[in-house]
Amino acid sequence: MGWNRSIESARRVYGELVRGRTRVRVVDARWEPASTVPKFVLSPYRSGTTLLRYCLDSHPAIAVPPETDYLAHLGALLLEEASSKGLQDLGYDAEARREAVGGFGRAFLDTYASSKSKPEWIDKSPRYAECPLAIDALYPNARYAIMHRHPLDQVFSFTKGGRYIPSALANQELEEGTNLVLAAANYWSRVSSSLASFAVAVDSRATTIFYEDLCDFPRETLRSALEGFRVEWDESVLNYHLHDHDLGREAGRVQGTVGFSKSSKAWESWPTGLVDEVWGSVSETAERLGYRRDGGRQ
């Protein structure tokens, strides 16, 4: 009996040693709050931000992970009256709530950047373009790059020419008989208008850039974005294809691309009447951003 116990104890010890050796930790679970300023790219889906992400992620000081999404829930918690009241009743004032919830949210991003041996992170999640006030409630000192794309190009890409219902629209429960392309156009107009107003509200903390400029003038556009983020210029951002990038849900869209080739005017395959209808629904916001009906910018 004693011999059996010794064998079992030895097995347990051996098992613990093996598990300890084979346990894989992707990022270090130990976390201390970083002093870096949170940074975000805000843009509607299919606006070219994956290309921008690969460029910024190539910078030796910046880690840009795949889309995260979870911060939208944390920001909503701070803005939701009942949740805030519940935390207040526990003794947490507004600043304490923000520090606790915001600190929890950034812990994942801080450890991700640390795993890449980089001091800075930028979160590029299109979902946050739908709720910029929630993100800013979490991080009132955050800096932003707000990126726009011509609405006709974005709507065409977003819906794959009108043949695909993206989740951002499906979640809004499209009414029966609703024209998908027009629903996508309304989405672009709503989100882009909100972002333009948000950029004005946060003033110097936001830098506005355009997908078309990123493709036509990559050096100048990336320099502007980095200046807005208060990060020094590095030539590596122009050679994103030479660097490895973690793949997320956007994998395959830009992977394998070299250079800055602009994708535009696929919507010219639509009937003229549909193009006119879409433009009519977006023209006010589009013209505010300097876009023309013919696909160009003023």
What would you say this structure looks like, in words?
The chain is an alpha/beta fold. The protein has helices at 2-22, 49-57, 71-79, 81-89, 94-115, 132-138, 151-158, 167-170, 180-202, 211-216, 218-229, 272-288, and strands spanning 39-42, 62-63, 120-124, 143-148, 206-210. The longest helix has 23 residues, at 180-202. It is globular, with a radius of gyration of 23 Å. The protein starts with a helix and ends in a 10-residue tail after the last helix.
| Contiguous runs where pLDDT drops below 50 for at least 5 residues | 13-27
Oligomer: single chain
Helix content: 40-55%
Termini separation comes to: 88 Å
Specify the biggest β-sheet: 5 strands, parallel
What radius of gyration results from the CA coordinates? Answer: 23 Å
Beta-strand percent range = 5-15%
Counting DSSP E segments of at least 2 residues, the number of strands comes to 5
Mean pLDDT: 88
- Read across the widest sheet, the strand sequence of neighbours is 2-3-1-4-5
In short:
This protein is α/β, with parallel strands linked by helices and 298 residues long. It contains 12 helices and 5 strands. Helices cover 49% and strands 7% of the residues.
Keywords, separated by commas or semicolons:
298 residues, alpha/beta, 5-stranded parallel beta sheet, 49% helix, 7% strand, globular
Give the helices and strands, then pairings.
Layout: H1 2-22, E1 39-42, H2 49-57, E2 62-63, H3 71-79, H4 81-89, H5 94-115, E3 120-124, H6 132-138, E4 143-148, H7 151-158, H8 167-170, H9 180-202, E5 206-210, H10 211-216, H11 218-229, H12 272-288
Parallel strand pairs: 1-3, 1-4, 2-3, 4-5
Helix pairs in contact: 3-5, 3-6, 7-9, 9-12
